[in-house]
Amino acid sequence: MRWDNLADNRAKTAKSGEAALFAADAVTTRTFDTPEFRGITFHEVRARSIVNRVPGASRMPFEWTVNPYRGCSHACVYCFARKTHSYLDLDTGLGFDSQIVVKVNAPELVRRELGSSRWHGAHIAMGTNVDCYQRAEGRYRLMPGILAALRDHANPFSILTKGTLILRDLELLRQAAEVTEVGVSVSVGFVDPELWRTVEPGTPSPERRLDVVRTLSEHGIGCGVLMAPVIPFLGDRPEQLRATVRAIAAAGATSVTPLVLHLRPGAREWFMEWLGRHHPELVGRYERLYADGAYAPTWYQRRVTRHVHELAAEYGIGPSRRETPRALPGRGEPQPPLDGAEPTQLTLL
User: Fold this and answer.
1) Which of 2, 77, 216, 315 could serve as 221's disulfide partner, Cβ 3.0–4.6 Å?
2) Contact criterion met (CB below 8 Å) for 75 and 85
3) Residue 337 and residue 21 in contact, taking contact as beta carbons nearer than 8 Å
4) What totals of helices (H) and strands (E) does the chain contain, helices first?
5) CA–CA separation, 349 vs 346, rounded Å?
6) Over 70: is that where the pLDDT of 176 sits?
7) What is the DSSP letter of 79?
8) Which percentage of the chain shows pLDDT scores above 70?
9) Is residue 130 pLDDT above 90, yes or no?
10) Closest by Cα among 63, 67, 158, 153 to 117
11) Distance (Å, rounded) from C-alpha 241 to C-alpha 243?
12) How crowded is the C-beta side of 161, counted as CA atoms within 13 Å?
């Protein structure tokens, strides 16, 4: 493993014009011999910036993200963010699941960057790279400080998660919702227990995630569901889609938005290896379906989306609609992070 490409190297910075994300000599590696963290290594770093601009080519309807972690113990075999581990020469397979980078100073950085006169108060999305409520958050507790900073600056934000730990911060979410727009979405692509156990082995079950939707709704925080991913040939049968949408509606979700599996480099190799072990008969079908790139053909995506929307209408819910972010008064246009760096993060979709 090396951290050279992120190290505080003056010569490299001058040559590339890019500031380092953190200093290589500021990495502390820890392991914890407890059942929930056994086999996981944590690399604690002090990041140089935390409010990151989304690449211009992204399909996302937001421009800024905060990601306090790299790597994810959810171990979803399809996770697009696996490629980001290769930037640190970390393995994108098992290493992504078990080598977790923790930006331990994330809360103080968020507060500092939101307090800058150069910050406009734009919408900030969280959980768009890896889950900010993965198991590591139970130990490091970065999100309470981040949420408090967003609340104190009345900065609109959204969270996407598969983690039930978000309920720990229910009061902070409620307080923030009193002063700014707060959006919460839970990811539930299917409710099939066997499919869940094999493709999302480190996540809470779909039923527990839907309990999060239910609890948030009962406390006045509307929660949508990102029905993602819809996995071709494994989770896309009409009866499977119906069962999932029915469960989402029963949990009180305000919206449901389907997203078909996409396989970017890094994730594609890991997923196809998993597919060859568990469903070898589907390898050829996947190679044909994804022959043109990371995304399934438009006709297939539209068919799934239309079916899910029809089911959602039948059960009384609809596709998500993002509210216009509220800007803080008297601020200028959004600017890069304070240190002049403009690192980018991949986005979920």
Assistant:
1) 216
2) no
3) no
4) 12, 11
5) 9
6) yes
7) -
8) 82
9) yes
10) 153
11) 6
12) 27
Residue where the block lists tokens 């925080």: 221
Q: Which distant-in-sequence residues (6+ apart) come within 8 Å of 254 by Cβ?
A: 217, 222, 223, 224, 317, 320
Distance of CA 313 to the CA centre of its chain: 27
**The tokens of 252 are what?**
């009180």
Q: Do residues 116 and 125 make contact, with C-beta atoms less than 8 angstroms apart?
A: no
Cβ(328)–Cβ(153) under 8 Å? yes
The pair of structure tokens assigned to 230 is 């819809």
Among 81, 104, 88, 234, residue whose Cα is nearest residue 162: 81
Give the β-pairing of 157-161 and 124-126.
parallel
Quote the pLDDT of residue 38.
83
What tokens does 286 get? 């996947």
Sequence letter at residue 268:
R
4, 24 contact by CB (below 8 A):
yes
pLDDT at position 347: 34
Nearest to 260, CA basis, from 288, 292, 226, 291: 226
C-alpha distances (whole Å) from 349 to each of 75, 84, 199, 207, 217 are 18, 15, 18, 23, 25
φ/ψ (deg, to 5) at 343:
-65, 155
Q: What is the mean pLDDT of residues 64-70?
A: 95
